[in-house]
């Protein structure tokens, strides 16, 4: 799992719900005309919980720049709560947690966090070429066997 996959999963879900509004990554925004959505990963962390297992968390922020500030901004926030509950990451569904939104300077800022459990694949260890086994019987001193 990469941060890119989570960002793309969020962008895909927003595009499905709002097909007429451009959805861009934060790095792509260049004086884009409103309305538009901007998606950016604001925080990511991983914690090791086993030999090859990790708990990954990613906080994503979706900014909505409306054409004009009106009540539809709150409707857009409600729609994002529904749409971003589940996203697809690497072929599996991931549930969002810790949703919140605020309206600052005519912009809707919607935040959601995703938690994933990751398993790192085993590293290929070098195998032994061959094992040569030799055996022999050691001569031992004769035992006194009495019948």
From TrEMBL:
Highest taxon above the source species: Bacteria
**InterPro entries tied to this protein:** Phage_tail_terminator (IPR049254)
- Looking at the Swiss-Prot or TrEMBL record, what is one Pfam family this protein matches? Phage_tail_terminator_8
Q: Where is the composition biased (Basic and acidic residues)?
A: 133-147
Chain spans, region Disordered = 123-147
Protein's UniProt name: DUF3168 domain-containing protein
The scientific name of the source species is Paenibacillus profundus
What taxonomic classification does the UniProt entry list for its organism?
A: Bacteria, Bacillati, Bacillota, Bacilli, Bacillales
């Amino acid at each position: 799992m990469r941060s890119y996959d989570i960002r793309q999963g969020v962008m895909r879900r927003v595009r499905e719900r709002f097909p007429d509004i451009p959805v861009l990554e934060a790095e792509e925004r260049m004086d884009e005309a409103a309305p538009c959505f901007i998606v950016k990963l604001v925080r990511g962390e991983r914690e090791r919980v086993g030999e090859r297992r990790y708990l990954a968390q990613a906080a994503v922020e979706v900014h909505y720049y409306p054409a004009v500030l009106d009540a539809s901004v709150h409707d857009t926030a409600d729609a994002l709560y529904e749409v971003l509950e589940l996203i697809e990451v690497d072929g599996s569904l991931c549930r969002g947690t810790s949703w919140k939104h605020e309206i600052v300077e005519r912009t809707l800022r919607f935040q959601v966090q995703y938690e994933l459990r990751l398993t790192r694949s085993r590293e290929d260890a070098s195998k032994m070429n061959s094992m040569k086994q030799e055996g022999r019987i050691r001569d031992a001193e004769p035992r006194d066997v009495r019948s």
